[in-house]
Write a structure and sequence with these properties.
The complex is a heterodimer. Chain A is an alpha+beta fold. Chain A is about 15% helix and about 20% strand. Chain A contains 9 helices and 12 strands. In chain A, strands 3, 4, 7, 8, 9, 11 and 12 form a 7-stranded mixed sheet that branches. In chain A, strands 2-1-10-5-6 form a 5-stranded mixed sheet. Chain A is globular, with a radius of gyration of 21 Å. Chain B has one domain. Helices cover about 75% and strands about 0% of the residues of chain B. Chain B starts with 6 loop residues before the first helix and ends in a 12-residue tail after the last helix. Chain B is mainly α. Chain B is globular and about 65 Å long. Classes of the chains: A alpha+beta, B mainly alpha. The interface between A and B is medium-sized, with 38 and 31 residues. Chain A: One of its GO terms (molecular function) is molybdopterin cofactor binding. Chain A: It is an enzyme of class 1 (oxidoreductase). Chain A: Keywords: Metal-binding, Molybdenum, Oxidoreductase, Signal. Chain A: It catalyses: L-methionyl-[protein] + a quinone + H2O = L-methionyl-(R)-S-oxide-[protein] + a quinol; L-methionyl-[protein] + a quinone + H2O = L-methionyl-(S)-S-oxide-[protein] + a quinol.
């Protein structure tokens, strides 16, 4: 109740974007600082080292910042966003994906496109991305387990990519499949879900400008644990809809089967829009625990969950007239 | 009369201090901010786990005495049981104040509608009368009723084990291993009591049918 009346944090708490984007230079500057400091007693101290996060290992990506869809809320630390993941193909503990994904090879990568579209076949990732400008989108990510993060993704609107395949008029849904390589993904050895992982969207959801096909986060290529090299980000739906490491895209007329929905239909619907009014058997969805900024505070970790994860203004019209409790 | 050193009495402060170590470690991790990306969830998990561990250790004392004849352990039982209640209370307080703090209406719906929260809350609730009647004077005042009342600890233990088991996400078989192990330990501690229970119910039946029951007295 308290926080969400004004979700914006104090301006003083935000790292200015210019500083965030220049953090590499700042780090370099820091390395030379001792030499500069020698002999000049009154030089200002450089930024304390604790405030600087370790650099992500992936290649640096150039992306256009400042999307109108981006939130100004405090970012989740890159360390937390890359070490607290649900990616069961690498294990079911939150720390497993970062720990168990070193054998995963996201290059070279290709995606097979099939179903009701004029252009189908297998395409190299480079060809899929060619001609598209990367942009940064800072989105809220709401997990069905009632925690959330704020992550600066890098990618392209899914719509721009899908249009190139010229979907047919009767293509009403888009189905996605995650890669399944048992030799590189130790979690596949356990029958947690019916592998490979599958997800799907209605075509208007897939074509919505908010829906992002992401290739990076925090200015870098996606690490394996976050869904390298290509994943979906659908910010108004629970996290499991944002399928990782995509190898297949199919245009279908019928609603495609989706992994969590198949395993427990009562608990996980096809739509899975973030909805504080529809409770899960184990987690109330009314509120969420925000993992952002870092540090332990005795209060104020919990926020009111908003319908469509705060993106109602953009997406509520997609579901006009629908019973969102039945179609959860 | 010569003063004999009571080793059990001397050991009590040591056990007391040892039982506070998990709390100290948590305080240290809060201070150093090393509880991981979701510190509140970690805090809930750890305090709950220690409550269950102390409860199981408390429940292990009676079978241990039967097995080894080491009756001195009995004198630590109350302290260990109270620590189980203490960690369960911290666990509940973290959940209510740190985690759900401010969202009071949600507290009620969670307790009423989430089965795993309901059983966890009941497990804690049932420990209150046990903690409240744990003093020597209450034991004396309640007499035979005391022992019957304190059988609630078995219900509390069962609910606590269920609480742990029930929150595992569907399909997370690996995550279920730990709760299953704890539930298994609880079940073993109950099975270990079976011979005593059977013998006592036989004695009771024998007493009811008018025959004189041999062996140990009915109320201990």
């Amino acid at each position: 109740m308290r926080r969400r009346t004004d979700p914006r944090i104090k301006p003083s708490e935000i790292t200015p974007e210019s500083v965030y984007l220049r953090r590499r230079e700042l780090l370099k500057g820091l390395a030379f600082a001792p030499a500069l400091l020698a002999g000049c007693g009154d030089t200002q101290d450089p930024q304390p080292a604790a405030a600087v996060e370790p650099e992500l290992p992936g290649k640096r990506l150039a992306a256009r910042p400042g999307s109108a869809f981006s939130t100004t809320e405090t970012l989740t630390r890159a360390t937390d966003a890359t070490r607290y993941n649900n990616y069961y193909e690498f294990g079911t503990d939150k720390a497993d994906p970062a720990r168990n994904s070193s054998r995963f090879r996201p290059q070279p990568w290709s995606v097979t496109v099939g179903g009701k579209a004029a252009v189908t076949g297998t395409f190299d990732l480079e060809d899929i991305l060619k001609g598209h400008a990367l942009e940064e989108r800072i989105y809220r990510l709401r997990c069905v387990e009632a925690w959330s993060m704020v992550i600066p993704w890098i990618g392209i609107p899914l719509a721009a990519v899908l249009k190139r395949f010229e979907p047919a008029a009767d293509a009403r849904y888009v189905a996605f499949t995650t890669v399944a390589r048992p030799a590189e993904m130790p979690g596949l050895g356990y029958p947690v879900l019916d592998w490979p992982y599958r997800e799907g969207l209605r075509i208007d959801e897939a074509m919505h400008p908010l829906t992002l096909l992401a290739v990076g986060l925090y200015g870098h290529e996606l690490p394996a644990q976050n869904g390298a090299p290509l994943r979906l980000v659908v910010p108004w739906k629970y996290g499991y809809k944002s399928i990782k490491s995509i190898v297949r895209i199919d245009f279908t007329e019928e609603q495609p089967p989706t992994s969590w929905n198949q395993s427990a239909p009562d608990e996980y619907g096809f739509y899975s829009n973030v909805n504080p009014a529809v409770s899960h058997p184990r987690w109330s969805q009314a509120t969420e625990r925000r993992i952002a900024g870092g540090g332990f505070s005795l209060t104020g970790n919990r926020l009111q969950t908003l319908p469509f994860n705060g993106y109602a203004e953009q997406v509520a019209s997609l579901y006009a007239g629908m019973d969102l409790v039945r179609n959860h | 009369m010569a003063h004999r050193i009571d080793r059990v009495a001397a050991g009590k402060p040591l056990v007391f201090a040892a039982a506070l170590v998990p709390l100290g470690i948590l305080a240290w991790r809060i201070h150093g901010n090393t509880l991981g990306p979701d510190p509140v969830a970690q805090l809930e998990h750890d305090t709950g786990l220690w409550a269950l561990r102390f409860l199981l250790v408390t429940l292990a004392i009676t079978p241990l005495r039967r097995l080894t004849g080491w009756s001195a352990a009995l004198r630590f039982r109350r302290m260990l049981g109270l620590f189980a209640f203490f960690y369960a209370s911290v666990h509940l307080a973290v959940y209510l104040v740190v985690d759900l703090g401010g969202f009071w209406s949600q507290v009620l719906t969670e307790i009423a509608k989430k089965p795993f929260v309901t059983v966890g809350f009941l497990a804690w609730l049932l420990m209150i009368p046990l903690a409240a009647t744990s003093t020597r004077s209450m034991m004396r005042r309640l007499g035979g009723l005391w022992q019957r009342l304190h059988r609630l600890v078995y219900v509390s233990g069962a609910l606590a084990a269920l609480h742990f088991l029930w929150q595992v996400k569907y399909g997370k078989t690996i995550a279920a291993i730990e709760p299953v192990v704890y539930a298994g330990i609880f079940a073993m501690l109950m099975v270990a009591r079976l011979p005593d229970w059977i013998r006592r119910s036989r004695q009771r039946r024998a007493a009811a049918s008018g025959r004189v029951a041999p062996g140990r007295p009915l109320v201990q």
